Amino acid sequence: MSILNEALSAWRQHGLAYIIRTAPGHLLRRARQRSYRTIFTPITMDRQELIRYCEERGHLWEIDEGTIFEMLPPENTGVPAKLEGLIGEHEIEPNFVCEITDARLVGPWAIPVTPSGKIISEPYGPMFHSILRRTFMHDGLISTLRALWSSRSPPDERDLSGPLFHLVARHGYDYDEPNYGHWINEHLPQLQACDWWRKHRDPNLKILVNETDAAWLFELLEIYGYSADDIVIWRGQFDVVNRLIMTKLNWIHSSSVRMNPLGKQWARSTALQNIECDPEQNYPKRIFMSRQNADRRKITNFNAVKKKLLQKNFQIIEPENLSMQEEICLCSQAKVIAGVQGSNLAGIMFSSESIIIEFSSVYVPIFHMMANELKLDHFSIYNEKVQSSGNVQKNVKIPVKLFETILLDVEGLLK
Q: How far from 311 is each of 222, 285, 318, 414, CA to CA, in Å?
């Protein structure tokens, strides 16, 4: 979006005073972003260059055959503007895995660098330049530049000589706070590449992850067959990996997405194969995954919505209080899953036949795409923003009458 279009959009949403107040900081950020891109683009290795680099060395393998994927429109609305270019058939290229020998890892997000000094952007997608800036801010300009291109040896002597899979999360408030929703959508399907490598190349592959207190991350890895002995925690500012293993990042953003139906279907089937849900447990068939304890995207008229949910036999779930096994079992057994757009809905990854009802203040295609990738029916209810600033969605007001109509449609599908 051009600066002029951004200004016009901000004026319509927030008024002239907002533009006057925020324009200087916004223009400074834009200038800083452009300077980073100008400086680092020539020494950055994008996906196509990474593929060529690995192919030339015989270090590239395709782990599936790709597929033709059809994105369907929402069940209950026309095609929102952000979906217009996504509806229809898409040729999905195969997921791949590649090996980089003697790669440097730099900074809190373990930015990989080839021996010749090319910075690999693949683990970060559109966030690459943001991650680079945040690394300079965290480690300092001189320290980061020396780590990127100095010929010196790493400061610590940890053994990183074996094959090591890059799974350091790019998304979160900070490097040690990976975002759950992005991790489920983006990184969990990448474990398919780990699984392929262990079966076809080397069973001793280990996984490199962020230093974090996020218990759910390690619970998930255990469910997928990775014990503490299989995990290496990234703590250093700078290290060299003898054999770094990487795969394609299929990212999700409110503004752009990369489809990965085969990876997500693999993630679902693998979890359900590895989990044993209690056959004596009477799992609810209709669940509402709440965000009312979160700091944004709460429902402002929740009492009215809650009344309607209870009338229709929904059980209100606070997913932050669940273990990963509990969340997987709940979502895999549910016939209907409802919730406001966000990480609380990420559990639909583990659903085989649920109908999804998504609330949001502004339409974004992430969970509609995810439902399509998993072959689930998806209904969308989105409304004007309430208490919002910039492009950050905060609280949501649900049109209860529309919700009632959608519940009737859902009842028809359940029959």
A: 38, 14, 19, 17
pLDDT, greater one: 56 or 80: 56
Query: Which is it for strands 238-247 and 206-210: parallel, antiparallel or unpaired?
Result: unpaired
The residues with which 245 forms a beta bridge, in sequence order, are 99, 165
The predicted-structure confidence for 330-368, as pLDDT tens digits, reads as follows 999 999 999 998 899 999 999 988 999 998 877 788 999
What ranges in 41-112 are assigned the alpha helix state H? Answer: 47-56
Q: How confident is the model at residue 387 (pLDDT cuts 50, 70, 90)?
A: very low
| CA–CA distance, 351 with 357 (Å, rounded to integer) | 13
CB-based contact 122:248 (threshold 8 Å): yes
The secondary structure element, H or E, covering residue 16 is helix 16-40
Of 184, 225, 195, which is closest to residue 64 (Cα–Cα)?
195
Within 8 A by CB and 6+ apart from 38, the residues are: none
Give the E-state strand segments of 108-162 in sequence order. 111-113, 119-120
The answer to whether 406 touches 76, Cβ cutoff 8 Å, is: yes
| Three-class DSSP category at 138 | helix
pTM for the predicted model, two decimal places: 0.87
Write the DSSP symbol of residue 361: S
- Amino acid at residue number 116: S
Strands 67-71 and 88-92: antiparallel
Mean pLDDT value of segment 160-187: 92
Rg, Å, the chain Cα set: 22
- Angle between the N-to-C axes of helices 215-223 and 324-333, in degrees from 0 to 180, rounded to the nearest 10: 60
Distance CA 26, CA 240 (A): 37
CA gap 164, 242 in Å, rounded: 8
3-state DSSP percent of the chain in helix, strand and coil, to 5: 45, 20, 35
Q: 244 - beta bridge partners?
A: 100, 164
In the block, which residue shows the tokens 């009737």?
Answer: 408
Neighbours of 101 (CB within 10 A): 12
Size of the chain, expressed as the number of residues it contains: 415
CB neighbour list of residue 325: distance below 8 Å, 6 or more residues apart: 219, 223, 275
The Cα 110–Cα 120 span in angstroms is: 11
CA dihedral 177, 221, 368, 393 (to 10 degrees): -10
Hey, what are 41's tokens? 């683009």
